[in-house]
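Hi R.,

Quick one: here's the ATP-binding cassette domain-containing protein sequence you asked about.
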Amino acid sequence: MAENMVEVIGAVKKFKDVVALNDVSINFEKGKIHGIIGRNGSGKTVLFKTICGFMKLDSGKIHIEGKEVKPTTNQEIGLIIEEPGFIDSLSGYKNLKLLASIRRKINDEDIKKAIELVGLDPTTKKPVKNYSLGMRHRLAIAQAIMEKPRLLILDEPMNGLDKSGVIEMRQLFKRLKEEGITIILSSHYAEDIEALCETVCEMDNGFLVKVQ
Ligand SMILES: Nc1ncnc2c1ncn2[C@@H]1O[C@H](COP(=O)(O)OP(=O)(O)O)[C@@H](O)[C@H]1O
Ligand SMILES: [Mg+2]
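And here's the predicted structure, written out as tokens:
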């Protein structure tokens, strides 16, 4: 049997009168691309935040590679939840170099490789303010993968992209999967991810159902 990267076991998260996660249980196998679809407000971002340990569950558990996620654990997950802020006047490379200096886990070569992997040019001096939306998305993904996480969580990575941008992202995610990264991503458009994802779940009002 395939190993699980993430196990969500009876996860419950409430905010006053809103039940954002209503007894959610799901396993995400290693080495695959998993998709979560669902309307705005259905609970996708809350699920991702609890998987990362940014948000505490009211009850239930989440395991990553067999270890329970605690709010204090420094999970090594590549993550994009909201549009990351870059410094507009700097190049993509300089932005990532600045961010890499926080954890000091990787060197310049690793940063360049991540930028190349997403199909951008690490040598360009072009400032981020002149990037297209698709290029910004790529840079955000380069940032999320540069420290070589084994799990990559992408919250609505197709948002705002045109058709060709969505196709490019799909190709990129397949390439990352080939690098051995497990990916979980969300979208409110089923068609954006159905062709790409090996498993698809739907969140609906805090409930999660498997559709594929
Ligand atoms: N920090 C919070 N405080 C109060 N309510 C929240 C908070 N975060 C999310 N919610 C609520 O939980 C529900 C699920 O939100 P979310 O996971 O962001 O939905 P989605 O990502 O699917 O659009 C929504 O009703 C939202 O208003
Ligand atoms: Mg969301």
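Residues 134 and 161 are 6 Å apart (CA to CA).

Cheers,
M.
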